[in-house]
Amino acid sequence: MIKKRIIPCLDVKDGRVVKGINFKGLRDVGDPVEMAARYNAAGADELVFLDVSATDEGHDLMLDVIKRTAEVLFIPLAIGGGIRTADDIGRLLKAGADKVSINSAALARPELIREAAERFGSQCVCLSVDAGWDEEAQDWFCFTHGGKKKTDIRVLDWVTEGEKLGAGEILLTSMEGDGTKDGFDLPLLKAVEKAVTIPVIASGGAGSADDFVELFRETDVSAGLAASIFHNEETTVGEVKSLLSDAGIPVRLTAGGVPNEA
Amino acid sequence: MNTRETAAAELTDGRRIAIVDYGLGNVANVRRALEFLGHRVELTKDPDVLRGADVLILPGVGHFADAMKRLEADGLIPLLTELKEEKPFIGICLGMQLLFEHSEEGDVDGLGFIPGAITRIETRLPVPHLGWNALASDRPELDGKDMYFIHTYKAAPGPHTVATADYGGETVTALVQSGQLIGIQFHPEKSGDAGLILLQQAVTGGFREKEEASE
Fold first, then answer.
1. Where is the protein situated, by its record's location annotation (chain A) (predicted)?
2. Minimal CA–CA distance to B54: which of B160, B178, B179, B180?
């Protein structure tokens, strides 16, 4: 049986891990390769590095981080942030990434998804969507630039188009949930998961291990992603998986992550 | 103790491994994993290097018909057919599928080293079959191990199947072996410690076949 994936996300700026609260107020928390190794040992099923560097030099440092990570870690590694072109994607994959998540650049030019999927395969292309609820329109809209700019593109239209263009996966972040620790945005996740046939990764709002149980009980998403609750050690990947396993939700049990391996 | 370091340490003599380079897919991570395990790895289509290697790896991510076209254009098919009799030969992901007789993906013939055909996964779950899934096998060291899969087409279980995985009611071949020929549907280089240990086993000795395993 396929396992529900638990994915820690590391925001990386100029080669260092930083933490975001509501996409603002960044602070330095560690070396990405070291933290990636810790999460691997704890049983993370996959890792995401989100490059929040503002400069070309910062993005170049990311390539070095990917290389160093890929030499010692043998679980899937996804990279997001700062990706403009198919050549950018080629560089990240060559450095050792397994897939990339693209957001603003795909909204600006949807053909990028098709180009990337044709050149590198759909399995490399994760469409990242930052979704915000519009009370007046009673619908979710896409945001860009780390959640700062609202677009007039509806989330449900965009994810179905993204799938048609060749995206292999959707990373869906709730702008309302992100950094709040109020739990995952279940209505949004359910709506998107039903609109596409490709796997959906839920992001934004995880505040406790219980939130992951609720996520997988209430929706059919394939994976849950979180950053701060893992970095701050409010819970661990192992604890989340242990709780999921006890709740009858299939997870990958690793010796390091879960003591009561069945 | 860290199991993957144990797997690397147990190997006293690194093998010379040739990864067949036919211009398809991202093979850097397969290479890194094999180097991590203590082997000398070369990415090549040079017939002399392929002949001289201890182990051959046929990688592949992409389209089946495109892969066969490239193997043919590079003149590799007769050579691979010859070498598969002589040394351990491991196909990974699309590389495993190419070992079979035919694929629905592009409706073309494969290398035909293993009987059977590749067909599309039919399930109500999302396709591709993406993520960690448990192996089912008569072999206790494989059974229940979670491995990382990404694939849209599959080989149905056949006489040479060593391990399978269940995806939404579809039983897919995860591991297949016929003599020195091994096919791995999942990505051992992305399956954490369990994947590295399995990759090491495939490279250094292979697996007993299903018939022998059921003692």
1. Cytoplasm
2. B180
pLDDT of residue B209: 61
Report pTM: 0.90
- Cβ distance B130 to A168 less than 8 Å, yes or no, reads yes
**B125 chain-A contacts, CB cut-off 8 A:** 2
Closest Cα partner for B18 from B43, B39, B35? B43
pLDDT for A29: 75
pLDDT at A54: 86
Q: Per CB distance under 8 Å, which residues of A are interface residues toward B? A: 1-3, 5, 40, 45, 70-72, 74-76, 93-94, 96, 98, 120-124, 168-169, 197-199, 222-223, 252-255
The reply to whether residue B126 touches residue A198, judged by beta carbons under 8 angstroms, is yes
Q: Is A190 exposed, middle or buried, given 0-12, 13-18 or 19+ CB atoms closer than 10 A?
A: middle
Report the pLDDT value the prediction gives residue B112, as an integer from 0 to 100.
98
Cβ distance B30 to B59 under 8 Å? yes
Tell me the per-residue pLDDT of A202-211, one tens digit each, with 9 for 90 and over. Answer: 999 999 999 9
Q: Domains of chain B by range and CATH?
A: 16-204 (3.40.50.880)
Q: Could you give all domains of chain A from N- to C-terminal order, each with its CATH number?
A: 5-247 (3.20.20.70)
